[in-house]
Amino acid sequence: MGIDASQLRQLVIAPTLHHLQRHSASAEALLLAVAACQSGLGCQLADSNCYGIFQISADQHQSCWDSYLAADPCLASQVRGLASQHAFLQDPHLELAVNLRYATAIAWFLIEAQHIELPATPDIQRFARIWQQVFNPAGLSGDFLQAWHNCLDGSLQAA
């Protein structure tokens, strides 16, 4: 059993995007849909070398820091502030599985680093292409659409 979609959206995704000054209805919906597709909204938190509700690989995590966040020390500090003090230093990738706000921030910056322009309103077909580009290049858009319908069932209409 995963995390309730509306609670994940209201208590984690929206506040994190606001904190990062990146909030939009499309950003919320996209991240919620990615979590639904990648992990069934948290039903699976670790799979080989991928972690958390967004199933971010260690390589993606490292690349996000090295290639994107490190270029902006203020932004890097803001994201680092979401991580736990000691656990992050011992196993930074595990933070993606145990810290929902941190994982959400990293997922967002993986998208932002690709210079992807989001649609003004949630667009499932466009979101499926973004998911494939950023999170699962071998994934099928049908998998994304199925996860959208199975896990989100109306929770995106309130956006």
Automatic annotation (TrEMBL):
Superkingdom per UniProt: Bacteria
Protein name (database record): Transglycosylase SLT domain-containing protein
Organism whose genome encodes this protein: Pseudomonas pohangensis
